[in-house]
């Protein structure tokens, strides 16, 4: 009869920090007993206790109310450059306020934050009013393509054209090299899953970039 003691092992999750699992709410960890000649066994069950935390306390009455933007990540990404074009001054004021507030930006910069929110909401509203079809096609593509902008250039070009014609807002990516075609205007995306079909449209070049390209040449 062997005097070797039975072993209790946790082997189903290599390199797992069991202490962190326990601290994060992991419960019901049960190990199987195994002998030295048997295969390593696994953990029976792992259950995590999760619940959504919602703070239902309203803001104080002295803080003016502002309606949230109410858009998910894909529409916000689609409209982000136009939001930046219209709301740059408000964004700069908000960031400057946070820099000057020495860690109290959440309290000291509420007024600037409300301006940013209202401006962003106005851009979303105007795009929905004048370019709903193009906007929806673009953000739907972004949503379905892992939020990778280079996968959705044809839809983006149509949206850029519509927004410029109706709202006079341009998409501008800062700090791009002079004399080089901006990345959003290139007709070929080497990392895209599907090659761009020329029948789907061509890059929209706003007048400001067209004049800049003429001067560079």
From TrEMBL:
It comes from the Eukaryota. Keywords: Disulfide bond, Electron transport, Mitochondrion, Repeat, Respiratory chain, Transport. Coiled coil: none annotated. One of its GO terms (biological process) is mitochondrial electron transport, NADH to ubiquinone. It is found in: Mitochondrion. GO terms for cellular component: mitochondrion. The keyword Transport applies. InterPro entries: NDUFA8. PANTHER family: NADH DEHYDROGENASE [UBIQUINONE] 1 ALPHA SUBCOMPLEX SUBUNIT 8, NADH-UBIQUINONE OXIDOREDUCTASE. Accessory subunit of the mitochondrial membrane respiratory chain NADH dehydrogenase (Complex I), that is believed not to be involved in catalysis. Complex I functions in the transfer of electrons from NADH to the respiratory chain. The immediate electron acceptor for the enzyme is believed to be ubiquinone. Belongs to the complex I NDUFA8 subunit family. This is NADH-ubiquinone oxidoreductase.
């Amino acid at each position: 009869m062997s005097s070797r003691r039975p072993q209790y092992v946790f082997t189903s999750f290599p390199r797992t920090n069991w202490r962190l699992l326990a601290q994060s709410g992991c419960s019901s960890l049960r190990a199987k007993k195994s002998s030295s000649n048997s295969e390593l066994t696994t953990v029976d069950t792992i259950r995590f206790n999760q619940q959504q935390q919602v703070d239902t306390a309203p803001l104080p009455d002295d803080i003016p109310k502002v309606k949230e933007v109410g858009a998910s990540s894909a529409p916000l990404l689609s409209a982000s450059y136009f939001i930046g074009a219209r709301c740059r001054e408000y964004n700069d004021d908000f960031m400057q306020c946070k820099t000057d507030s020495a860690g109290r930006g959440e309290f000291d910069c509420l007024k600037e934050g409300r301006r940013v929110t209202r401006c962003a909401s106005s851009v979303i509203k105007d795009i929905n009013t004048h370019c709903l079809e193009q906007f929806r096609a673009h953000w739907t593509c972004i949503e379905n393509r892992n939020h990778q902008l280079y996968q959705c250039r044809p839809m983006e070009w149509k949206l850029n054209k519509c927004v410029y014609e109706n709202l006079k807002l341009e998409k501008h990516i800062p700090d791009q090299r002079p004399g080089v075609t901006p990345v959003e205007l290139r007709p070929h995306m080497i990392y895209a899953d599907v090659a761009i079909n020329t029948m789907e449209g061509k890059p929209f070049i706003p007048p400001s970039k067209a004049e800049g390209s003429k001067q560079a040449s």
